Amino acid sequence: MSEIILAIESSCDETAAAIIKNGTILSNIIATQSIHEKYGGVVPELASRAHQQNIIPVVEEALNTAKVAKNEITAVAYTKGPGLLGALLVGAQFAKSFAYAMNLPLIGVHHMHAHILAHFIDEPRPEFPFLCLTVSGGHTQIVLVRGFLDMEVIGQTRDDAVGEAFDKSAKMLNLPYPGGPLVDKLAQNGNPQAYQFSKTDVPDYDYSFSGIKTSVLYFLRDKEKHTPGFTKKHQADIAASVQAALVEMLMQKLRRASEKLGIQSIAIAGGVSANSGLRNAVKKEGELQNWQVYIPAFEYCTDNAAMIAIAATYKYQAGQFESISSSPNPRLPF
What are phi and psi of 221, to 5 degrees? Predict the structure, then answer.
């Protein structure tokens, strides 16, 4: 019997739906919300309203693209957390209603587990155990992955996530939201050694990015005070230098974890894994350290429903289902 899962992702500002059949993605539809750009960040209430508008058209498109009828679905999956509560509720309520109406099992998926398991959508797939650096706007973690459903966070940020550091640095450079990708684009035409910013090294495999944000802020204030227009004139060099510092902070702990644990299989995941500086640094380090490096396709880096679908597949096979009375959790523990 075919195993066909409808997966919903609505943790932040992307409304997404995917269909997976026996482990193969048949469709992966994403509606990105542009309404937040003028506010310089995601507005939770507006995100929730946009999810309500988008979810039915997105699910219909996912079914049509996959050429799957509603009565062929064998399970429904949704993002249980972490994320914005209102946004999560829209996806969860839709999934629960669909599952109840069609008498189907319900699968709740952890958003960060799904980012890691996105590596199993396509070849090449990592072998266990491996280390995964999961980096996004809300999370920065080094995860020891022993199996599809066996993962342990061994290091994480103590304050801001690296995605926040990219976005807030972009704001200081007067770039529009979302600024992280624009920093990356500018950095490709800048000198990464032009300026030095403070890099915080906290114990073990943990991270701290609050210091580098302060360093960038004070640097730009001082330069503008003595040389008005400095930021605009040297935007590319500043972006490249900020990116180089953030990437080196990420790589330092990843190298340390690989060496201490003796694990040579290294993966990256999450929205910031689309950053060209990080992707190149991991590839370069892989050549030096003889790592087996796994980097997801761009479409599976940012939030998407295909990653929810592949994670749901392994939970389905393990018989890990949710009660129809379960609720999403914006601070769902790893």
Answer: -60, -45
